[in-house]
């Protein structure tokens, strides 16, 4: 029988149990973390505030001493058992016991859960369209309420009255008319919006060639 991954080298019995465990593992099959450790490789330290220095092996949450964890593991907070995760906008992925933190660039809010005006997307690194009213847009996709009848400048890859429509994948340089989505086509694409493959081509990006059409 093959030894479990947690058993050092080939040190196991015929029933699969380990003779000895790797560092920070315990149990007959070495499938648990020793007290005070958690994580995929049992390499992370439980919070100092955990009762008995014991925490959940998957996320590090625990029952706290004196009803309050004095120190949560990095990236966690919560006054009862460190069960909540700091927001991604927190600098260094660390926060206070109530979730407040110092923000990374382009993030704002007491818990750094929002982008500053004019920014959106992963890491709040993308710029809202110049036509967005109040210079604000949807945090996930950049769509917005426009100033004027149309958004004068949609972000690349978007079009429509509120920049909510996506240019077709066949558009050259992922760019299209902000009013109707028409565009110049990449190779092997055709149509006003470049959403059709030319004759003899099919598949993603129209890269596949028909053999017996």
Summarize the entry for a quick read:
The chain has 213 residues and is an all-beta fold. It has strands at residues 25-26, 32-33, 37-38, 44-45, 76-77, 84-85, 107-108, 114-115, 119-120, 126-127, 158-159, 165-166, 189-190, 196-197, 201-202, 208-209. The protein has no helices and 16 strands.
Distinctive features:
single chain; 213 residues; mainly beta; Laminin; two-stranded antiparallel ribbon; 16 strands
Q: Note the beta-strand portion.
A: 15-25%
How would you state the average pLDDT, rounded? Answer: 82
End-to-end span in angstroms? 53 Å
- CATH fold name of the domain at 167-213: Laminin
SSE order, one letter for each helix or strand: EEEEEEEEEEEEEEEE
User: Sheet with the most strands?
Assistant: 2 strands, antiparallel
Structural class: mainly beta
Q: Into which percent range does the helicity of residues fall?
A: under 10%
| Spatial shape | flat
- DSSP summary, beta strand count: 16
What's the alpha carbon Rg, rounded to whole Å? 27 Å
At CATH level 2, the architecture of the domain at 167-213 is Ribbon
